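Handout, section 3.2

Students often ask what a structure token actually looks like in practice. Rather than define it abstractly, here is a full record for SCP2 domain-containing protein. The first block is the sequence as you would receive it.
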Amino acid sequence: MPDNLYIEGAMTLSIDNEAFISLSMWDYIDELWLDFLDAALLLKKEGHFAFSFPDQAIRVTGVEMDAGHFQFEIRANSVKAAILEKDVFCQALLAGAREFCQHLCRLSPQHDILDLLREKLGELETVKPDS
């Protein structure tokens, strides 16, 4: 019987053609998407975030630099950092999370995490910066 609680997978993230997150950084992808959605919400509401991949020694942080930009950092085997536009990052994250949610609905329509994913997507779509 398949484990409906955990789904292994990977996401990729490239910034200016440099891989910040690669397929080799696979993890529990459903939990990782929730962590990224929480991070985007915290960035918009509080100006910073920090979390670790669910089952890997990979740390992700973000700190607001000014109203429109933040420093994004990944600490894995090495440290990679970039200054990003908050709105562009959040919109790209929303698009990827929506696509993941649709894919998960097809693969496992009864997955326990779907309602939470939808809730976080809805919140991120409506939250205003610094609200």
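Discussion prompt for tutorial groups: Residues 8-124 form one domain. How would you have guessed this from the sequence alone?
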